[in-house]
Amino acid sequence: MKCWVCESNNMSLYRRGKEGIKAEDLRITDSRYGLTLPIYKCRDCGFLQCDTGDVSDLYEQLEDVEYIESSEQRKKQLGFLLKQTLPFIPTSKILDVGAGTGLFVQLAIEYGLEASGIEPSAFLANYAASQGLPVVNSSVPNYPPDSFDAVYMTDVLEHIADPGSLLLAYNKILKQDGILFVTTPDVSSVLARVMRNRWWHYRLAHIGYYNKKTLKHLMLRTGFELKKYLPIKWYFTGEYVFERLGQYLPFLRGKCCPKALKNLMIPISFGDSILAVYTKGISKK
Known about the structure:
Layout: E1 11-15, E2 39-42, E3 48-50, H1 56-61, H2 65-69, H3 71-85, E4 93-97, H4 103-110, E5 114-119, H5 122-130, E6 135-137, E7 148-154, H6 163-173, E8 174-185, H7 190-195, E9 208-209, H8 212-221, E10 224-230, E11 234-237, H9 238-245, H10 259-262, E12 265-268, E13 273-280
Parallel strand pairs: 4-5, 4-7, 5-6, 7-8
Antiparallel strand pairs: 1-2, 2-3, 3-9, 8-13, 10-13, 11-12
């Protein structure tokens, strides 16, 4: 097995886990926190990755009705992301990678940007198309060179085997002064270290676990230079928070969420995700 970040073969077992996954295990709304595939650690750069091949076929089969039902809270957090990143976009043509049902594309269009998306799940991409949104059902970025001013990868890299090849492909379709925005969980964050195996980002769908050091190494190798880290905030309904807390607090399991909390939208900053802005440079590959 080769490290996806530094390409070293010096890997060792870091954490045991479930053997094998199905498309249903990759649901965005899966709440089985702490359940992962076996995780291996690179002795050279410290990157953590799962022993898996290409999972793009599974993502093509992925269906997640609950994801569609949670659109309102996702619009809030994506709206916050868009406002944070707008000052860095040189002009207006953007691509959202892993676009899901096209929520971010919709918000960007409403802001006056020329936005489109690419999504591997046929179920989610077809839903986006049914809403009249320009989201392509594909795992491969088949666009001409210099097509976009900005590319967004929001919670994408942690799902990808061989992220280097993917980033090289997106480097080519970005214009010379283009910007890449990456959001991914931070495995070295205080919260991740405190929660250890119960950290909510340890899940079957996540097969690569980054920190700022390993992410920077990967980005430099694939032609991206760090410009800035930005704060990030997530939005959840009170009902969602109550339900997910039941994973950690047994006395809440099976209990009904109080009516006063149900539709309350709660902004939370856990400090366990990275939002980074990159400029296009020259690949070292």
